[in-house]
Amino acid sequence: MPVADSPPVFHARGLTKKYGRRGKVALDDVNLNIPSGRVIGLVGPNGAGKSTLLHLACGLIEPTSGSLAVLGSRPAANASHLARVGFVAQNTPVYGSFTVAEHLVLGQKLNPAWDPALAQRRIRQVGLNPAQKAGQLSGGQRAQLALTIAAAKRPELLIFDEPAAALDPLARKGFLQNLMEFVLELGASAVLSSHLLGDIEQVCDHIIVLCNSKVELAGDTGDLLACHARLMAPRADFDRLAAGVEVISVEHNGNYSSAIVRTDAATDPLHPVSLEELVLAYMTRAAAGVESASWEVAR
Ligand SMILES: Nc1ncnc2c1ncn2[C@@H]1O[C@H](COP(=O)(O)OP(=O)(O)OP(=O)(O)O)[C@@H](O)[C@H]1O
């Protein structure tokens, strides 16, 4: 894994992206500092701005205002920076009329640090036929090809936009396993956007929760899990919570309530939360904020 003094994977300051003449806001004043050496899960509801952030990070689009540095430089600043980042887009695009072997030849031509041995070995390991046209591969095989091409660049950062969404559970498991093997073999960082919280929980050690174009939560999963818990108590107790306890989301069931709280205090009775519960709590809070804001406007 990269050393502690490596530049951050993402360093965003006031990062804002608006689309089109109407200025549709996709990212709104985002601040982030994501250390290297992590497998980062980027989660959030549809339209939250995840793909926009990843496209900005790959230099495919420009911010409207603010700044984003990726591995310490402007995204896609030059050929050598491009070579440091491997990107697997949504639906893992490949050239349908090219064979698997032709993809590897193309990869070698286009990438100065291409590792042919790694590419060949991985193609063999995942059982891809070099002579097969990519257009005839299954979704899982296409994803494995796209992952191999991204990894054979030997990048410092691998970026995946919902790479496994269309795969069946077995293919997804294989894909995630390979992804983790690559991360270890390359000593790379990875950013993985996904709606599949189970996948995120399985492979990520850092998360970014993006809701309504803003960062709702970001941090190392271990740290976040340590300062969140489920609090179950009579409903009335929630009116007099200890100082330092913040309710993120709460469900009432008769006179009893169950809440996900952020706490630096030891409050009884607290139960640990899973990463999935934590992410859902922040997404629920953000959705409730939008609902009450639009209700205010409607009044
Ligand atoms: N090229 C574009 N032109 C106009 N609006 C766009 C464009 N791309 C994205 N948007 C809008 O920006 C917002 C964020 O979109 P984005 O694709 O980044 O979200 P996302 O979190 O990746 O969503 P999903 O989970 O559905 O893939 C959405 O409201 C979307 O409609």
UniProtKB/TrEMBL annotation:
Membrane-crossing segments per the record: none
Gene Ontology molecular function: any one: ATP binding
Keywords linked to the UniProt accession: ATP-binding, Nucleotide-binding, Transport
Pfam families: ABC_tran
InterPro entries the UniProt entry points to: AAA+_ATPase, ABC_transporter-like_ATP-bd, ABC_Transporter_VariousFunc, P-loop_NTPase
Domain ABC transporter: start-end pairs: 10-237
Record SUPFAM superfamilies: P-loop containing nucleoside triphosphate hydrolases
Keyword Transport part of the UniProt annotation: yes
Iron recorded as keyword: no
PANTHER family reported for this sequence: ABC TRANSPORTER ATP-BINDING PROTEIN ALBC-RELATED (PTHR42939:SF1)
Name of this chain's protein: ABC transporter ATP-binding protein
Annotated organism of origin: Kribbella sancticallisti
